[in-house]
Amino acid sequence: MLALLCLGGASTSTAQLSEAEFDLCLVNLQAQALELGLPEQIVGQVIPALQLQNQVVRLDRSQPEFVQTFGQYLGIRVTDTRIENGREQLLAKSGLLQSLRDEYGVPGQYLMAFWGLETNFGGYLGQLPTLDSLATLACDKRRSAFFTTEFLTALELMDRESFTPEQMRGSWAGAVGHTQFMPSNYMRYAVDGDSDGTIDLWRSEADALASGAHFLSQLGWVPDLRWGREVIVPEGFDYSLAGRSHWLPLSEWSELGIKRAGGQTLPADADIDAALLLPAGAEGPAFLVYRNFEVIMRWNRSESYALAVGLLADAIAGSPGLVVAPPGGDGIRYEDIRRLQTALAEQGFDPGPADGIWGPGSRQALSEFEKSTGRIADGFPDAEVLELLVNNQPAPGSQ
Known about the structure:
By secondary structure, this protein is mainly alpha-helical. Among the domains are: 11-64 and 126-171, Bacterial muramidase (Helicase, Ruva Protein, domain 3), CATH 1.10.8; 334-390, no CATH class. It contains 17 helices and seven strands. The strands form two sheets. It has a five-stranded antiparallel sheet. A hairpin with an 8-residue loop joins strand 6 (273-277) and strand 7 (286-289). The protein is globular.
């Protein structure tokens, strides 16, 4: 069967900036930097020397032909090697991690999971020039306001920490260091974990891990609460209750027949709310997620990323793997997602814009359609429902 993971969407445009447009934009960025009170050396020397990076515009526009399935996503990110490396790092940094748990309430295995997923424990921090990349994206119209703020913040950061432009390298979008912080998060949440008087997320693992713990704490991390757990869903379950729009106490999920993955009864706690996620549909693994899952989602808005963090953290701490493995199969083409969204709207079920992004609105619309036709209402676009709704439907924009 088909399985879907939405990693986010972007326009398929291949628009690029010209050198003239970029140079004119840099003049405007210089004026804004002066208004912020940044030193003349930065405004007058650093900004004019920046180079246009049209590759980051292409990356910002890129839309793969196929999205990954949940199983493919986990298979790439939660590997035996990464688990083993995470366990080694957990042991090697036990003193630091215990002190961070005491101060921020975040267990070490979660910090190892973020570190492992973001940069493979520092194995790859990104090589693109941060200021050039951010300036390019600030000058691009698609998300100019956001990246202008991040660019100017990166300049403030460079001034505050006495970094050189050459030292500041990272991802195409400007995320930097071991924990891949955007400059605004670097400025707000990064802390001096090794007490050397400098906050350096590139070269200090202690700074990066302490900053990650502080960030999660400030986002609302609840100490002594796990991210969630794999569960078993009973036959005849009302799958329209799945999704992060439906939060119920654990006691109510238990009354509905939900059990732990091993078959044990859920903790009888009426004070802990949870939501049910089915990232691969009713045939795949099911998870009850708690409020700390929402905190992870504020680090990265992908549900699959947040599930990978939780599952990798559990594995690093010694938990076994999934009881129910995600089903195999290929992903769904971007264009087919758009056609499915269009077909749902034509049937009277509002998925939001036909943008090729399979988010909560699309999931809810499909769930309502499935329920109206007597199918399992898991909101998951398998081969049968894709054929039913999309077959003979024209592609959006083709008429």
